[in-house]
Amino acid sequence: MRRRFAPFHVLPVALVAAGLAAPLAAQDPGQWGFYSANKHATRYSPLAQIDASNVGGLRVVWRHKQVDPAILAANPDFIVSNRYMVTPIYVGGLLYVPNGFGLAEAIDPKTGRTVWTQKPLIAAPEGLPSTMISKGLAYWGTGGDARILHVRQTHLFALNPKTGEPIASFGDGGKVDLSTEEFRYKWNGVPVVAGDVVVLGSSMLEQDSAVYKDGTPGYVRAFDVRTGKERWKWSPVPREGDPATATWENDAWRYSGAGNVWSTFSADDELGLVYVPATGVTNDMYGGHRLGNDLYGSSVVALNAKTGERVWHFQTVQHDLFDYDLPAAPILIDINVGARPIKALAQVTKQGFLFVLDGATGAPVWPIEERPVPNSTGPGEATSPTQPHPTKPPPYEHQGLT
Questions:
Q1: By three-state DSSP, how is residue 119 classified?
Q2: Are 158 and 167 contacting, i.e. CB atoms less than 8 angstroms apart?
Q3: What's the pTM value of the predicted model, to 2 decimals?
């Protein structure tokens, strides 16, 4: 939940008279233990305390500025950006959220008081500014093993949920440097824990102008949730030996980049899969430098959470030149089609389609038709002659203009 107040954002919390539910474990439905409610990204709570009979009586009981007032008072010259798009999680009686500087913060949900704020790597005021502020953070474990997993600037942090102190046994004293010789890391997404690894995306430049074609792939990487050691890395732009390179004409995969996960992941621990909503590749508005369907751009991809091996994929836009990135984590739901139970995956898209696939195999639950689409007249461009259209369910928004 978020509202905008200039110059600050705040976290508004509305409570009914009965008060807060008792703290439970992160997986318990009585809490909001993940950015999208749970690893399945359902964004749904089964709690029934608030319903049609009492929702009109909700009142704001506190507001929390996007940065602890004590920090602002100690650094009065700082102007905090109003670009603040975060969602808190609620675990073990505390709210956790990145603040306006991108530092993790714990908040008492009864009072709105700051319990602790993550210390920057460089002391304030120099260490406060952040070029990218993540939209959320992850919680893993119980008891002494529990930790907040959080990306800020170029590092992945593991923090003690009760104190905010770094967990020394994770990486280098509680942090892992995510930059490599290939790129300086940046990302404002939200980690997801799948099995015993924490999975992160990245934000590589997708476009600059029509002549921009080179770039770094938007790698998906997984780190051991206990030690911080990198376990695997997967590229949405296929690498040497991947059959998907055949979908790129003239070996364009060798220099193309991006395919980032701008959004968030979902995961199914029973199937051992993490689901990747990949975005467009360089250039995201012109494809004359990368003719072909360009897998795995604009595709939902299932990866083995232990190894990073691709299990299946489905491309929602072939040779994307419309910036039709997959905008959200796939939703994992159990459905019955006829008499057949299916662990289904529902992927929303920018064009109003809902692609419903079998979460284990990637097979369409209902037929998906390849239908003819208009060709481009752009110089050097060669668009796909068809695009996939789900036959069910119907589009969830108006499509097209006349």
A1: coil
A2: yes
A3: 0.91
Measured CA to CA, the distance from residue 234 to residue 273 in angstroms comes to 13
Mapping DSSP to helix (H, G, I), strand (E, B) and coil, where does residue 387 land? strand
User: What is the CA angle 265-269-273, rounded to 5?
Assistant: 55
Q: Whole-angstrom Cα distance, residue 272 to residue 306?
A: 7
Per residue in 185-221, pLDDT (tens digit) is: 889 999 999 999 999 999 876 654 455 788 889 999 9
Q: Got the DSSP string for 37-100? A: SSTT--------SS-TTTGGG-EEEEEEESS-HHHHHH-TT----S------EEETTEEEEE-T
CA distances from 149 to 24, 108, 175, 255, 384 (A): 19, 19, 10, 32, 41
Could you tell me if 348 and 359 are in contact, meaning their C-beta atoms sit under 8 angstroms apart? no
Cα 9 → chain centroid:
21
Q: Which residue type is seen at 102?
A: G
Distance from C-alpha of 367 to C-alpha of 391, rounded to nearest angstrom: 6
Across the beta sheet with 266-268, the strand order is 266-268, 273-277, 299-304, 310-315
**Amino acid making up residue 31:** Q
For residues 316 and 13, give the distance between their C-alpha atoms in angstroms, rounded to a whole number.
37
